[in-house]
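anyone else get weird line breaks when pasting these?? whatever heres mine. first is seq + tokens for prot A
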Amino acid sequence: MQTSRETGTGVDVHVSNIGGIDETALRLTPGVNVLVGRNATNRTSFLQSLMAVSGSERATLKGDSEEGRVEVDLDGETYTRVLTRRGNDVDFSGDPILDDAEVADLFAFLLEDNEARRAVATQGNLRELVMRPVDTEAINDRIDELVAERDRIDDEIEDAKAAGRRIPDLEERRVELLDEIEAKREALEEKQAAIDDADADVDKSREERDDLEAALDDLNEQRAELDRIASRLENERSSLASVREEREDVAETLEELEGVAEDRADYLDEQVSTLRDRKRDLDSTITQLQSLIQFNEEMLEGEHTEVLQLLADDGEGGTDAVTDALLSGTEHASGRCWTCGSEVSMEEIEETLDTLRELAREKRQERSSVTDELESVQSERNEIETRVERREELQQRLESLGEEAESREENVERLTTEREEAAGAVEKLEETVEELEAGRHSAVLDLHREANELQFELNDLQDELEDVESEIAELEAEVDRQSELTEKRETLTDELAELRTRIERLETEAVESFNDHMEAVLDVLDYGNVSRVWIERATEQVREGRRKVERTAFRLHVVRMGTDGTAYEDTVDHLSESEREVIGLVFGLAGYLVHEVYEECPFMLLDSLEAIDSNRIAALVDHFREYAPYIAVALLPEDAQALDDDYRRVSEI
């Protein structure tokens, strides 16, 4: 897939006091820009300038300057980067293209000391490099949040389903109540008609009848009050039993969590702090080593002319003599050391540089180990914190349930007393009614008593009907939410699936991208018996603290073809320097595409390709040009001749 955005008209770059550059202004055109020249012609310094204005801090300030500056006009916007000397350090300020250049440093700025490019030669952790820009901790935290939210929605959906299952029974009860109410009303109307007929035929004492009716009304009200108190008491006892049961469950769960080692959490916090400090120290050391290595390599290339001038002033020869000594290319050539001023051989300088490179590699490996240990300790600490938080929540819940149990016990005791008092009042009213009825023994009084009982029963039925209809309405509203909850759950599930597969997807894309481009490049470059170079995404068990967990690893395979045509697997150590350089550059391109660096950073920079022959350099640049808006490649004149004549050449910087 072509991702190049060759839609711009060009980039104007203004540089002052960066690396070996005093002052220069260049224009880059979309596509490939070839910086042609011998060593010590500031090609690397110009590439560093582009890195600096993009947001990287892998650039050096000119040795005799207090301030350097890079300015770029790109797509109608102006970006700047200022380097200011502060004692032995250099501060970076301005308005660069990128707020964070970590991904570009890894996969777009493919200079000689580029970490992704060197990872192949040093057999570094390829998977760690690809995944370094991804905040896996934030992804895992978000996954935990979504899982908790999904579980809550699952509970609500189950409640909605349970509500739907209850509605048919309630509807059936509603129909039964309507029939019973209709029957009670008809019976009450018949009883009232009988009372009216009896009142018309019998001339009895109105006062006595009114007393009985009043007593019956009081009795009905008191019976209703007794029923209400009994119902409240039953509900309170049921709630109290539920509270006691939940309190037992909480106490049992809390007992299981009593073994949480808070002291262990304090120890792990100290470990996290120590490991973070160690990682920061290693980052600082690696940065310093990279700067030191880069400066010395530039000195060997003769780029820092001001230092060479100082050495020349102290020695017998001129600047040309010192430069010739440094660049003579013979093992026994000698020159003046730019740190102590003594006479040293090139072999000694190269050995020192090799030592520094080896130390840098060891520090990067140590940083990777410290990072793995830090992730393990943080994981254990988070697990303990979760258990401690859970225990505190349960303790608070246990206290709350205890208070609720005490309150409900008091309510049960109070309602029991009220029920006894109400039952006594009902008993007295029943005695009064019996006395009044005994004094009359008339059919009319019996009719009034029966009518009052029917009215009482009718009121109860109407109250129950109202409760049933209210409950049906609530359940129907809950059922109506089921589709909304299901849709929300599907959204959460999709986001969970995306998060859970994001890391795996990036890993898979990186491997597939590398393998596809490696196959295409090998076909073009024709490295003889190198049949295939590919990365295998494998799972392996590693130890995290006291646990064994599964981790993904990238395994680099090299397949060669023997003289008899038989394929066999070889190691990276047996590859030529040219082959290793090509593999490192393709790995950088894979990371560039997977992390879509081209969307934010317009530049891809290539340097130190001398180990690759000119025709293969040309084929490699032709392959890369499809994927970056602007490519700047530093080449020797003889290597540049093999590139397409249509590519822009820059010979003076």
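and prot B, same format (seq, then tokens)
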Amino acid sequence: MQVPFYTIEEYNLLPDQPGIYKYFNEDHELIYVGKAKSLKKRVASYFVKGSGLNHKTRKMVREIRRIEITLVNSEFDALLLENNIIKKNQPKYNILLKDDKTYPYLVLTKENFPRIFPTRRLIPHKGTYFGPFASVKAMNNVLELIRGIFTIRTCKLDLSPYKIQENKYKVCLEYHIGNCLGPCEGKQKEADYLKDIEHAKHILKGNLGIAKSYFRERMQLAAGELAFEKAHYYKEKLDLLEKYQSKSMVVNPAIKDLDVFALVSDEKNAYVNYLKVKNGAIIITKTVELKKRLDEAETELLLTAIVRLRDQFNSDADEIIVNIPIEEEYEGLNIHFPKIGDKKSLIELSLKNAKYYKQEKLLASGEVKDKKFRVLKQLQSDLSLQEMPDHIECFDNSNIQGTNPVASMVCFLNGKPAVKEYRHYHIKTVEGPNDFASMTEVVGRRYKRLLEEDKPLPKLIVIDGGKGQLSSAVEALKALNIYGKVPIIGIAKRLEEIYFPGDQYPIHIDKKSESLRLLQRVRDEAHRFAITFHRNVRSKKAFGTQLEEVESIGKQTAEKLLKHFKSIKKIKEASEEELTALIGAAKTKNIINWLSNKNGG
């Protein structure tokens, strides 16, 4: 029910009921919309002296000339109505959700033999719209799946029964290559065609299980009737569905429909990441920026994002999980703040995305201006570190073909290689090629030494490898009681995935990001250092083995020569006096004869 407007002097006449209030300035321009459980109490809080309003809010209050209200049945209804009015009018003092994109949809047309095609224009009477999709790629993946499984026409012909009976059309190339069954010539009944459409609708809604059950039943039925070619046909369709589903990030099949929201903020803006989970898989991920107007509380910003993003992506999930507790309950919004389990992991994943988006925005706007530490600050944000990682150490193993296992540690200070701090390690306690055990050994040796010498620990430890190598390094830190005191990550080479201990899913930093390039540089330097060391060890071992072939030259003498001269070339260039002083006259004579025969060969 619409209530007549009030002047600012009449705010105390407002009803003690839920609703929305609208503030207008002297030009009759709507400048703010708010919601309230009690209009009387909420609006009064703006005008009562000593209510502790901030500077921005006081500025708004000075502009108010007229108040208009709308009563509703509940606070949740007020929340929805407030959202609709803000979307339509964009009042200057309301939270602004900065997202100027138009998103793609897939439309199922209302016509004989319906079509499915992409569009950015919503014309309700044209058909049923599915989406929006967060990206064109995501939309095309679904469309490609549907067209790969079902024979749905792509032409724009008017396939009314009359025109088909009058033989108005001829089948096209799509029919001849098997993508269409020729309804234009009456080769497919509309009832059969609509069965495919029904299954396509389930897929468009994210319910792949129904379509999978259908094709699995048909496959088993055909196989039971020994119609193996037909069974293979259904198996191919089932495989397409399985392949598509495997590309989605599977969370937990027990988690059906869920909306995940995580917020981070600064003085001017808030950044909210949204994950939509359907049947145990993340099917939509979207991050938005909200412009603060009146120093709004984080819970208010988060609530605004929840309502707008759920509306934008047509979400009807029964449960919403968030990273900030919202104490107030809203009928129609089932909001939880998980503290453990898979849902907590989802919140952490969403929060990582929100923090990354925030940092990218700050870099793009030029707000992070300190060039010396810009990359380190970005890396700190990307990895959610408490301190800037100005001291990074990275470990790598090398045991090519299982021989001479060694490891390396490289050190980067302020984002630059600190070559004097590099370390080589011969593996001492592990027999054979065992990367995991080797990693545990060298990480343990490194930080045991630092602790004994009372030297500072790094701000970030990087392990060249995936979950296995990372877990092995964590064992060493736990044994030294420093796990949790130093951040540690693993970086897997193939997809440049970043793993944190205990996290089921990796994070992916933008491949163009400066912070990822720094991590890659650190990782590649550790790998280069390890490979070079391994190559030298093999070379020296081969050299020592050759020297032991010389008469009267044993292992101890070979090692002495190896340590002093480093190579056969330098032994050749050495004088007889120099060799004699090192190993004696008799052994020197044998070495010289051996070298002469070797040159002659």
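btw re prot B: The chain has five domains: 2-94, 105-250, 257-365, 380-535, 548-600. Residues 2-94 form a domain with the GIY-YIG endonuclease fold (CATH 3.40.1440.10).
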